[in-house]
Amino acid sequence: MSLIDWATGLHGYLFIGAMLFVLGIIGILSRKNAIGILLGIELVLNAAGINFVAFSKYRTAMVEGQVVTLFIILIAAAEAAVALAIILRFYRLKQTIDAGEANLLRN
Amino acid sequence: MAQTCLWIVLLPLIAFAVVSLFGKRLPRHGDWISVGAIIGSCILSIPVFTALLKHGQIFDSLSYPWISLPIAGGSPYQIVVGILVNNLTAIMLMMVSLCASLIHIFSVGYMHGESRYHLFFSYLSLFSAAMLGLVVSDNLLTFFICWELMGLCSYLLIGFYYQKPEAVNASLKAFMTTRVGDVGLFMGLCGLYAVFGTSNFSQIYEMVQRPEYQGATILGVSALSFIGFMVLMGTIGKSAQFPLHVWLPDAMEGPTPVSALIHAATMVAAGVFLLIRMYPLLQASHGVLEYVAYVGAFTAFFAALLAIVQVDIKKVLAYSTISQLGYMVMGAGVGAFAAAFLHLITHACFKACLFLCSGSVIHSVHTQDMREMGGLRSKMPVTFLTMFIATLAISGLPFFSGFVSKDRILAGALGYSMGVAGHWLIPLLGFSAAGITAFYMFRLIYMTFFGAARDEQKHHHAHEQPFVMVFPLMVLAGLSLAIWFAGPTGIESLDRALSLHWYDRAMTSVQTEMKISAHHGDEHIAHQAHNLALIFSLLLAGGGILFSSLVYLKEKISAEKLKAAFGPIHTLLWNKYYFDDFYIGILVQKVLLSWNWFLAKFDDLFVDRVLVDGWGNATLFVKSVVGKFDDIVIDRMLVDGTADATAAGGFFLRILQTGKVQQYLILTFIALAFVLAWMR
Q1: Is A105 inside any structural domain?
Q2: What ipTM was assigned to the predicted interfaces of this complex?
Q3: Is residue A104 domain-resident?
Q4: pTM of the model
Q5: What is the least distance, in Å, from the CA of A4 to any CA of chain B?
Q6: What is the secondary structure of A6-62 as a DSSP string?
Q7: Peptide bond preceding B243: is omega within 30 degrees of 0, i.e. cis?
Q8: How far apart are CA B521 and CA B419, in angstroms?
Q9: Which residue range(s) make up the domain with A38?
């Protein structure tokens, strides 16, 4: 199997999904900025969505995977709205959006 | 009739309960209840006795199941108690209730003004109930219970003047000494239950005739002999026979009516009554009767000797009682059990009379020492006359009751030695005792009532007693006449035509009832013995009286010279053969005290140190081990260890709790990686 075939088949999509997932995780773990972390989460969600679509196309004749992806996009949008609202309130409170500063429940 | 007998026993028992509980608050301290109850018993005894006179034989019984003992794999064993009314019972009931009534009446005068007056009467009532209960018992178990109750009353009444140390010691001595005999009787009772399975007299009379019981053994010895000896032991204790006679003279520390009732007329005779009740068993056992005869004969003789040297009026009578009881025991031993029983009855009457007379004298002159009396004849005529009649009776002169019974016993003893070779000692001792009895009794009369007053002041104050005290004396003196028992003279061959012969008739049917074989087979020997005994006893009694008169009345022979001539013997008698010294000095102090010492050491060294302290030390050791275990294992390792482990775990886990979400996520992924790696 040539590299093109490999890249345009299922494995190419899965590779892209995995890359996105890892990049998202790295973003979540390494960023201090709360918005950065949110972006990482969005990447992870979309990686999952790519996987659903890919499996739906190559492995079954049905469309549940694609429908689930639509749900994911929807939920990601709602999540982003909620998260951004929280971050906004947090900024008002602490004058920063550093996630390490969100330690009010500690002690 | 048995129902009547039940009430005869219950009346004094009720009186005992009432007087001991409420006596202090009752008018006259309740003496009328006690006296009334015993007179009631006496009146109830009369129909029983007259039935005997009328029919010549009576028999009635009542029985109640008392205790039911469960037996594994069988029907439960019943202990049945009850009442047996036969000729012996009727005669005894009459005698006991009559003597007891008269002595109760006498006590009203004698104990007048004493402290604890009501207690005295309650004890007397309890005693009367116990004695009457013993008489009507149809089995040895209730017999034994009443026997012990009488021992208790005896103890209480001897120690009635508990302020006097002598009285306390005497009561203890009486209780302890009779206990030795009682243990024997109790073993006999156990033996009866073991061998026969019952202690009912009538059943035992039946059973001893059967060969299978005659061959029975207990611990390798013949059962019948064993029980017979144990019964004899009970008699020796209660009737103060050699060697357990030492308590009776000391028992004279009690009030005189008590001495008359308990230590002369009734309780001490219970031992003889036991022998007579158990006579068929004694006869069936081999050789016991021989020992009975020797014990009785020896006691009769050696106690009579002791009575000669006594100076205390009551002690003379006490030794005389032992001696006369010896006669009865001897009579039972030689097979003249009807004569022995008759002597029991006649002796009760004249000895009660003698004791009450001595009580009257003591009450009058306030001393018991005969050396301080003398010449009281004119001052106390009724007392003198009644005592003289009783003295004639005990000395065995014709026309008086003692003659009838004593003559028969001596005839029986003589016949026994003529029939069975080698037993010449029994009649010899018996006849000697008869002579000595006449001597010391007249010595008592002469020293007390005749001659010059040895103590002027006491003699001056002496006076005759009130009617309540002399009335019993007169009745008892009347009962000392032969006519009530045999005939006007008491000589059998003369009276045969005249007399009623109620006693002989009653005894014949008793012999049939008890299934006693008349073993003195030869009629000729018996007849010959009777005539010989009559002559001998009359001669000896006359000789004794004559000698006594010479020494103490006419003073032809000096008593002091006699004393000097028989120096060592007098010392021996004065010290009561050293029996008390032997018992106290050797048995109690040497044997019992060293045994005591040994037990004390055993208690101290073994029980206290080894067992008690050892157990304590063992507990201490276990305690220290358990304490260490608790401290180290439970407290330190388990309790503290759990806490420490929890604290250490908390300390370690706290490091992870940074509150940084990203760090948690890293850990999550690391964990996920591990899980995935493991799942592969």
Answers
A1: no
A2: 0.73
A3: no
A4: 0.74
A5: 30
A6: HHHSHHHHHHHHHHHHHHHHHHHHH--BHHHHHHHHHHHHHHHHHHHHHHHHHH-SS
A7: yes
A8: 9
A9: 3-98
